[in-house]
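Supplementary notes for students who missed Thursday's class. We covered one full example, reproduced here. Read the sequence, then the structure, then the short commentary at the end.
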Amino acid sequence: MIIIKKSLEKQNEVPLFTALKEYHEKGTVPFDVPGHKKGKGASELSEFFGDTMLQCDVNSMKPLDNLSSPVSVIKEAQQLMADAYGADEAFFMVNGTTAAVQAMILSSCKPGDKIILPRNAHKSAFNGIVLSGANPIYVQPKVHNQFGFAAAVEFEDIKRVIDDNKDAKAIFLVNPTYYGTVSKIDKIIEYAHMNGMIALVDQAHGAHFAFSDRLPKCAIEAEADLVAVSTHKTGGSLTQSSVLLRKGDRVKSWKVHKSINLTQTTSASYLLMSSLDVSRRNLVLNGKEIFDKLIDVCREVRSNINKIEGLNAFGKEIIGKQGIVDFDELKLSINVHGLGLTGLEVYDILRDEYNIQVELGDMYNILAIVSVGDDINSLMKLYDALLDLATKYRREKKKFIKINLQNPEIKLSPRDAFYAEKLSIALDDSCGKISGESVMVYPPGIPIICPGEVITEDIIYHINLLRDQNCMLNGIEDVSLNTIKIIE
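Structure (token representation):
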């Protein structure tokens, strides 16, 4: 848990949100953008979302500061965010954590530099590598033998790759994974620093870690240099709002700022930014109480779900296996293989039959994300639905198919592959060819194959298997997945 540098009294302030409210109260007549002019040009939206929301959808101006070069209320709000996480600096992101991840890589790597990262990184990391011109060195995460998901990266595996690539400029970690598992990041970051490498952490699914000592350690506390956190995922801010944290002197502030401005919009949403300001105050002042209570509720619900035949809501008992050293109990991951259903099927049934939307379904599991907006009532609705579903939809249990893909051979750098000429051929005829596009399941956006990599029989089998299960595969032009683009 982070020790806040400044007083809680200071953390009670919301400078950007306050400035936006003051601007709204003045009733200024706008002759700037946006063109809807406080909602008058978008009456249908005003009627649905409310007048205040449209009236606060405004442009940068002196009283409200400018995200591209903040000097007043945005700067103050960002520093409060940095203090809340124990970082030296925080940057508000309105292009989502995707932009934060890309900025981390652009700040750390130039064309030709090596970056070490796990294969289960989000697609934003691979896109950041294309933008930077860096060359990826992959580490395979351990796959959980019982539940079939990418669990964590082992320190020894990371150490071996670092030892083989002493000239790498940065190491990129995913902490936690989508499923809530945590690697030994303290030791990994320490070893990366010992070898002169910058430590970057995608903590998109751990924005809440800094606010309870019953949650895994925040990457800033583990001395990471740059950390991306999706405040909107678990912290209560609006979708697409995120934060990039910087600590130490390995990456200079000016370089991060310039990297952010390469891709982030110059028309930053004040609705998104003010939501970051407000969510930060709530997390600091109330986060420990909120999350500690939710952890207790999740434990109770997990216990109840595990009494339903065919379901396994796994928790901290998975620590110590497949590289896992900690687990976020607010990730309610449930293995449904014992029902004879796939997680993809249960995902659809919960939405279509019970009006419950979980975060994802894969071949064997579903994931329900528990955050600041949840309580016992919402979690019990999920439990009741699972109890009923397990009775109505149970089928004969299918054979567990263990998929253990290895890192594909890289023939072209991601950037060279991105710009190369491509042609389409039948997927089943593509073995041995160089892929010209990515294929990934979304969510979580983890690639099976990336541009510039050699397609193997195992990869073709994996893609066909996921296609047959009606997974949401993207990154590929032919959504039927009958063909794939290759580079000759």
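Commentary. The chain is about 35% helix and 15% strand. The longest strand covers residues 89-93. If anything here is unclear, bring it to office hours.
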